[in-house]
């Protein structure tokens, strides 16, 4: 790879007299940048799962069907899957502050459109604009953190990122449930809008530029292949997850087929373009064994997280008869536990490395999923809470070590591409988790109903089988964590293939 010439940044701390960072600490300037990005990213990621609980209310208020309302979630995931692969290129061309302002402005505009939407079409448009901004924020945060954080302190900082990535989706349904219990659905956006505007103003005034732009060409064919490939896969998986009559539409299979073929073409083209350093998404990040193994485990975790996020509210409300608010409050402690554990896990990573954390985390995750298979129509809500807390603890022990190990094993010039790969696979894995768990639930529920089971019993049986499938798959995680190095792998900054 052609070395990028080192030039002083416009916000160079040496030029401004700002104190420099110690070998194991960020400078105050860099800490400010990371803090602004963390808070902003938490807000935008929260919106990805905030709509699920609101769909029944929206179906009534907007007079739309369940399949139409589901597009408010599907379109968000589709947009993320299409935009994130391009961010590896975007973050090379522009510096931190312009990228942040672009992302948050798009998110704020989308939030405003949603808040005042007169009907479904405008609300859907607002969600798409929101997702475009969200898709830029996560890779921007991860790239910035890896650029400014000394290797000895990366675990602590990535622990905070784990709060954003794992806790925000987990508490999204809780937040929306609380809002909908006292206010209309528009307030889900109206309460977020002022926060987004404040973030924009703060970023414009105080956010320093901590990354260095460099020339990069955009390959139009790669953009098209990326959109068709990742978009087709996510659309197809979402279609599998939305079946309600036991059948799968032709459009779903076409989308999966087109997505798979174009994704292969996209990979082949990126490998060819990487030889001249012009890849839209540099897949040489997978030449790092640590990155490849860590990302594979992260994808598995997202499958479990999004699948459980879908199933537990269905079980709580349909089988146990809990209200939306009760369900949200029941799942809240798990999200809070992940947030509380993440910083401590990050500090432990800096001391002992990833493997001593990953092994108990994988055991806890598998134990929780096996515990969920014991849920019955008359089970106590406390049993559900205990399982969710155990799963949350396992995820907290795994997210931070995996994020840090994956990106820390890459040379600095590939941080933006590594972040884009992680973000893209999150969307695909989230769609896959939803599709897998809901498809199993639906198929088994229909089979039991045909045998004469009541609606509640059929749903409980479908949820049991879905959790059983997830529990069996979780056993594959246990040996894979042993492939992650015991100690952190730190690639040299600024060079090396």
Question: What does it look like?
Answer:
The model is unreliable at 1-21 and 493-497 (pLDDT under 50). The protein is an all-alpha fold and 497 residues long. Helix 17 (415-450) packs antiparallel against helix 18 (455-474). The longest helix has 36 residues, at 415-450. It folds into 3 domains: 27-215, Growth Hormone, Chain: A (Up-down Bundle); 219-279; 282-491, Growth Hormone, Chain: A, CATH 1.20.1250. The chain has helices at residues 13-16, 28-46, 55-61, 66-69, 71-93, 96-116, 120-148, 154-180, 187-190, 193-206, 220-241, 250-274, 289-319, 324-352, 355-372, 381-408, 415-450, 455-474, 477-480. It is 73% helix and 0% strand. It is a multi-pass membrane protein. It comes from Cellulomonas fimi (strain ATCC 484 / DSM 20113 / JCM 1341 / CCUG 24087 / LMG 16345 / NBRC 15513 / NCIMB 8980 / NCTC 7547 / NRS-133).
């Amino acid at each position: 790879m052609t070395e990028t010439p080192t030039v002083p940044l416009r916000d160079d701390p040496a030029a401004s007299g700002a104190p420099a960072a110690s070998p194991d600490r960020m400078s105050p300037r860099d800490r400010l940048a990371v803090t602004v990005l963390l808070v902003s990213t938490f807000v935008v990621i929260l919106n990805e799962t905030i709509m699920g609980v609101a769909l029944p209310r929206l179906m009534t208020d907007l007079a739309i069907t369940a399949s139409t309302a589901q597009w408010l979630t599907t379109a968000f995931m589709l947009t993320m899957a299409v935009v994130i692969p391009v961010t590896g290129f975007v973050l090379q061309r522009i510096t931190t502050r312009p990228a942040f302002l672009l992302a948050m402005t798009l998110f704020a505009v989308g939030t405003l459109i949603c808040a005042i939407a007169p009907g479904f079409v405008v609300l859907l448009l607002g969600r798409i604009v929101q997702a475009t901004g969200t898709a830029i924020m996560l890779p921007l945060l991860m790239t910035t953190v890896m650029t400014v954080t000394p290797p000895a302190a990366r675990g602590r900082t990535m622990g905070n990122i784990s709060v954003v990535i794992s806790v925000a989706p987990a508490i999204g349904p809780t937040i929306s449930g609380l809002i909908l219990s006292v206010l209309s659905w528009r307030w889900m956006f109206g309460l977020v809008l002022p926060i987004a505007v404040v973030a924009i103003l703060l970023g414009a005034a105080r956010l320093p530029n901590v990354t260095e732009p460099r020339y990069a060409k955009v390959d139009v064919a790669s953009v098209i292949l990326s959109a068709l490939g990742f978009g087709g896969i996510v659309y197809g998986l979402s279609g599998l997850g939305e079946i309600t009559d036991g059948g799968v539409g032709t459009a779903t299979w076409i989308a999966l087929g087109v997505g798979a073929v174009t994704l292969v073409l996209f990979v082949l083209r990126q490998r060819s373009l990487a030889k001249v350093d012009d890849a839209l998404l540099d897949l040489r990040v997978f030449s790092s064994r640590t990155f490849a193994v860590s990302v594979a485990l992260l994808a598995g975790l997202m499958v479990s997280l999004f699948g459980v996020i879908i199933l537990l509210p269905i079980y709580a409300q349909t089988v146990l008869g809990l209200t939306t608010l009760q369900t949200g409050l029941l799942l809240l402690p798990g999200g809070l536990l992940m947030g509380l554990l993440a910083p401590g896990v990050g500090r432990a990573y800096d001391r002992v490395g990833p493997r001593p954390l990953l092994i108990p985390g994988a055991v806890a995750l598998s134990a929780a999923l096996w515990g969920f298979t014991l849920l019955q129509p008359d089970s106590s809500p406390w049993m559900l809470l205990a399982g969710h807390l155990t799963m949350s603890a396992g995820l907290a022990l795994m997210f931070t070590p995996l994020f840090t190990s994956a990106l820390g094993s890459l040379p600095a010039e590939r941080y933006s591409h590594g972040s884009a790969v992680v973000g893209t696979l999150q969307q695909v894995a989230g769609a896959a988790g939803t599709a897998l768990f809901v498809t199993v639930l639906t198929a088994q529920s229909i089979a039991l109903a045909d045998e004469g089971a009541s609606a509640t019993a059929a749903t409980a049986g479908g949820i049991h089988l879905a959790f059983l499938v997830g529990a069996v798959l979780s056993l594959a995680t246990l040996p894979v964590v042993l492939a992650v190095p015991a100690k952190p792998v730190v690639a040299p900054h600024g060079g090396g293939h």
